Amino acid sequence: MTYNPQQIIAKGPRQVAETAAEAIDNDAWLEGATYSILEEDEDRNIWRIDAFPTTEEEDQRLQELLAEYPELIVTADQLADADWLAMALSGLPPVRAGRFFVYGIHDRGKKPLNAVNLRIEAGAAFGTGHHGTTVGCLWAYNDLLKKHHYERVLDVGAGTGVLAIAAAKTGTKYAVGTDIDAISVRISNENAKLNSAGARFVWANGLNHKDVRKDAPYDLVFANILARPLVGLSQSIKLALRPGGTVILSGLLRTQERFVKAAYLSKGFRVVRRIHRDAWCTLVMQRGG
Ligand SMILES: C[S@@+](CC[C@H](N)C(=O)[O-])C[C@H]1O[C@@H](n2cnc3c(N)ncnc32)[C@H](O)[C@@H]1O
């Protein structure tokens, strides 16, 4: 029997939601399950878990596990067939992540009318939009855009430039990307042109370049690199952000989440959301005021 994908939503006090999320991480049946946890209502201390099972077994196990926490209110919503997650999980191009539709030249005929279409040619750079870390960043950014506008965005480790281009295409005036790899910078600039996006890319190690500092402080920083450089860059990222600004961190494994989170918590950031997809984790954190 084919499984009809659904989104399972569990809402409750932060402590309980976090304990349940940890139980999902530690459950052998749910290894690789995709879910996110975020603060829904700061004043009422309500957090929510959104889980996206892909099989009947995963669905049942998630429901069983969440039922062990009576303080959580658990509901399930049927997902539309063309839901972005189902499309992304199919592993086939193009990729839909919320309002974003990432496609290559061969799929140009499939562009939806109601999406922010991003034509990304990867060449030798990382980031066609298919990797769990890139999808996690686009997903997190899509949801942040529902409530916020970002005038200044920095993408550290731009790869194909997909994230800075996504920002430039959604109203960001100053969208800047940086990469340690010169070929990625060339490809990012080419992709910006293909998309008529006003994003610019700088060949730099981390944030250490006058052309990156020029447009600081940023309202939002993307950093999809690896856990160790994310920790090493935590102070520079803090200084590049305005107080209250947001960082979307990705490229870390679930098992490295604590290590990366600790570095940013110690610098006055707070966790706003975390998304687990396959073995990967995306963290959304806010700089203290
Ligand atoms: C995982 S890819 C992310 C690409 C793209 N942002 C995405 O989300 O698909 C990481 C990129 O970071 C670059 N990178 C790694 N360390 C860096 C550093 N210290 N400073 C700037 N870029 C770095 C790599 O060259 C690579 O292009």
From TrEMBL:
Q: Which residues bind S-adenosyl-L-methionine?
A: 134, 157, 179, 224
What job does this protein perform?
Answer: Methylates ribosomal protein L11.
Q: Does the keyword Transmembrane apply?
A: no
One Pfam family hit: PrmA
* KW Iron (keyword) present: no
**What's the name of its gene?**
prmA
**Signal sequence bounds:** none
Q: Where in the cell is it found?
A: Cytoplasm
Q: Which GO terms describe its cellular component?
A: ribosome
Q: What species is this protein from?
A: Asticcacaulis currens
Keywords, sorted A to Z:
Cytoplasm, Methyltransferase, Ribonucleoprotein, Ribosomal protein, S-adenosyl-L-methionine, Transferase
Recorded catalytic activity of this chain's protein = L-lysyl-[protein] + 3 S-adenosyl-L-methionine = N(6),N(6),N(6)-trimethyl-L-lysyl-[protein] + 3 S-adenosyl-L-homocysteine + 3 H(+)
What InterPro entries does its record include? Answer: Ribosomal_L11_MeTrfase_PrmA (IPR050078), Ribosomal_PrmA_MeTrfase (IPR004498), SAM-dependent_MTases_sf (IPR029063)
Q: What is its EC number?
A: 2.1.1.-
Q: Member of which family?
A: Belongs to the methyltransferase superfamily. PrmA family.
Its protein name is: Ribosomal protein L11 methyltransferase
